[in-house]
Specification:
Blueprint (H helix, E strand, L loop, with lengths): L2 E4 L7 H18 L3 E6 L2 H10 L5 E3 L6 H9 L2 E5 L9 H9 L5 E3 L21 H12 L3 H16 L2
Parallel strand pairs: 1-2, 2-3, 3-4, 4-5
Helix pairs in contact: 5-6
Length: 162
């Protein structure tokens, strides 16, 4: 499962969210397991907690921020995972991050059943649509889709088996 901070709908439970997130980080560290981090409108608190609790392996799933935030998360040792949102026309900040995040620190995902990539935006999402995410990133980076697929698969395998 995933853990993290989400301030989008309700900021009444920030303290509780932070406490649970720190507990999840501690459990992951004690078991030498990575964390899958959900972060929505909580980037600064997420970064702050990751800096406080060093040596945690993890991925920022369904990344929705900009390059400066991505850079700070990379500096904390996180991988950045891009979803179908990277294919949206209005996702310029996410696209810029996808161009700058080193390919060896990147994952791709669909986050099915939501956030279907173009050309299926607004419809139900499926795991095999991850190809559209790979294609968009390859186009943004002016590299082959095979390079994106190979490297992100390699990143995933090394991430789950340190």
């Amino acid at each position: 499962g995933e853990t993290g901070l989400d301030y989008y709908h309700d900021k009444n439970f920030v303290k509780l969210q932070k406490s649970a997130f720190v507990d999840h980080i501690a459990i992951a560290q004690s078991l030498n397991k990575p964390v899958i981090i959900h972060m929505r409108e909580a980037s600064q608190d997420t970064i702050s907690l990751l800096k406080e609790h060093r040596n945690v392996r993890g991925v920022i799933h369904c990344f929705t921020e900009n390059w400066p935030i991505a850079k700070q998360l990379l500096d904390c040792g996180m991988l950045i995972s891009f979803s179908g949102i990277v294919t949206f026309k209005n996702a310029r900040a996410i696209q810029e991050a996808a161009m700058k995040v080193p390919l060896d620190q990147m994952l791709i995902e669909t986050d099915a059943p939501y956030l279907a990539p173009v050309p299926y935006r607004g419809k139900q999402n499926y795991p095999h649509y991850v190809m559209y995410v790979a294609q968009q990133i390859a186009e943004l980076r002016a590299c082959s889709v095979e390079d994106v697929i190979e490297q992100t698969a390699k990143n995933y395998l090394s991430w789950i088996q340190p």
